[in-house]
Write a structure and sequence with these properties.
Distance between the termini: 21 Å
CATH topology of the domain at 67-276: Ribosomal Protein S8, Chain: A, domain 1
Oligomer: single chain
Order of helices and strands: EHHHEEHEHEEEHEEHEHHEH
CATH class of the domain at 67-276: Alpha Beta
Shape: globular
Radius of gyration: 20 Å
Length: about 325
């Protein structure tokens, strides 16, 4: 499939215009576009602009509210609930993390849940919001059933990602953003779109057998067996059970035949002021030492160097900021005004 490079600023503008054309406000369109282009810049194309056709189709089916009245209910000095009113998940999550950051700056910690939300894209964007303010950021969100539990034969939990961002003084923050499945479902979609095989430890068919043809997909596998299964459940407990949102198989599917059903997803955000727990200067110095120690470690055979979590994505972003983001010609045709 033919690809071409598109500059990130141009791609952002295309996405904004596409959202606005579907009835989304200019401000909300800009937030959503920023989240999507962020994912593409970091090479997480499965959570980038390839999702635009789905969002636009869902808006057309009234499965997303383009004029939401989002509300914040403070439930304590460090806690709050954001009601997204079925708006774009990117915008709901941005509002929730912004409020968590505000609370953390005032009171040391901000713990905010979001309800009545939808797919929010790459979580790294939101935890990085906290790191940019010198705070630790944590986020979790649940998704519809795609992952077979350890020892199970059918999907029950979603890919249920979690993300963490730790400021590192004058160095780039350490960012961990990962699904609790073997991979994110978007990578299955990406493989189908590109006509590429997948590794046999990613997914199984209806019989529970490993597959390499993504078209035979029935369920993803949890990463690390029982450990990934347990962490996936924890994410659902935080972002679903704790928020009063649907969990497991009771979450409406993203790619349903009927896109008019609103998904009511839950998110959980945490922002932490480092200075309330330890000396901020000592923290920064210790982080720098850890980064230097790991970077200086001799690599194991077959590896060029030891990299930090999020470092491959950061390096890819530097390249794509300079050269452009590779997109298929059909996606470019869809997005270009």
């Amino acid at each position: 499939m033919q690809e071409a490079l598109v500059k990130h600023a141009q791609l952002r503008e295309w996405c904004i215009r596409k959202f606005v054309g579907a009835g989304v406000s200019e401000r909300d369109a800009a937030v959503a576009a920023d989240v999507l282009v962020h994912a593409n810049l970091r090479g997480v194309d499965s959570h980038g602009v390839m999702r635009m056709p789905h969002y636009i189709d869902t808006i057309a089916a009234n499965g997303l509210n383009v004029n939401p009245h989002m509300r914040i209910r403070d439930t304590g000095p460090v806690t709050a609930i954001v009601d997204g009113d079925d708006g774009l998940g990117h915008v709901v999550a941005e509002k929730a993390m912004s409020h968590a950051i505000e609370k953390a700056k005032l009171n040391g910690v901000g713990a905010v849940s979001a309800v009545n939300s939808s797919h929010c894209g790459a979580l790294s964007y939101f935890v990085n919001m906290a790191a940019d303010q010198g705070l630790i950021g944590v986020m979790m969100t649940n998704t519809d059933k795609m992952v077979a539990p350890f020892g199970g034969s059918a999907p029950y939990f979603g890919t249920n990602p979690m993300a963490f961002a730790f400021p590192a003084g004058d160095l780039p923050p350490i960012i961990v953003d990962m699904a609790t499945s073997s991979v994110a479902y978007g990578k299955i979609l990406d493989a189908i779109r590109q006509g590429k095989p997948i590794p046999p430890d990613w997914a199984v068919n209806e019989a529970g057998e490993p597959i390499t043809d993504p078209a035979l997909f029935s369920a993803l596998l949890p990463f690390g067996g029982a450990k990934g299964y347990a962490l996936g459940m924890v994410v659902d407990l935080f972002s679903g059970m704790l928020t009063g949102s649907p969990v497991g198989p009771y979450v409406s599917p993203m790619y349903a035949d009927d896109l008019s059903e609103r998904r009511k997803l839950g998110h959980f955000m945490l922002a932490i002021d480092i200075g309330r727990f330890t000396n901020a200067e000592s923290y920064a110095a210790n982080m720098k030492r850890m980064v230097q120690d790991l970077g200086a470690m001799p690599p194991a055979p077959g590896y060029a160097q030891v990299m930090l979590p999020g470092e491959p994505e950061r390096r890819r972003a530097q390249i794509r900021l300079a050269d452009g983001i590779p997109l298929t010609e059909d996606l470019i045709d869809y997005l270009r005004p």
